[in-house]
Amino acid sequence: MKKKEEDLLFDLADANIAFADRLQEIARQLHFKEPENSQLDRNEKALRANASLLQSAAVSEALSSSKEAKEKIAAATARTEDAAEKIKQVKDAIKFTGLLLSLVSSVIVGKVPPVLSAADELLNAALSAKARAK
Predict the structure, then answer these.
(1) Interatomic CA distance for residues 5 and 11, integer angstroms
(2) Which of 16, 48, 104, 127 could serve as a FRET partner for 80 with CA atoms 20 to 30 Å apart?
(3) pTM for the full predicted model
(4) 51 and 17 Cβ atoms separated by less than 8 Å
(5) Tens digits of per-residue pLDDT, 46-60?
(6) Residue 126 lies in domain
(7) How many independent structural domains does the chain possess?
């Protein structure tokens, strides 16, 4: 059921209550002393019962819609988490490739300190990626 239909149920319930209140008000204005089980009394109680049923139906439908929305949000969140994980994996691969290129260029240049530094960074990145994968 759509939001407009839920609103319509609430509006109908409010109308039933308003009509029951109006019946009661008219009876008071006329100083009408009806018996407890008169037709007026039964009509008023029926209107209030209908109002309660309409309100219950509207609330039930709203809760159902809310549950469906929560399920859709949960599914979207799961897809987003999967995408974020893939992005992290691509980021790690790019970082690893950059560090590998840095190591290769250091080896080509032939200077020991940059080679050791690049190798250390590459090793730390590999260990960090392995720890996150667990």
Answers:
(1) 10
(2) 127
(3) 0.48
(4) yes
(5) 888 988 888 888 888
(6) 3-133
(7) 1
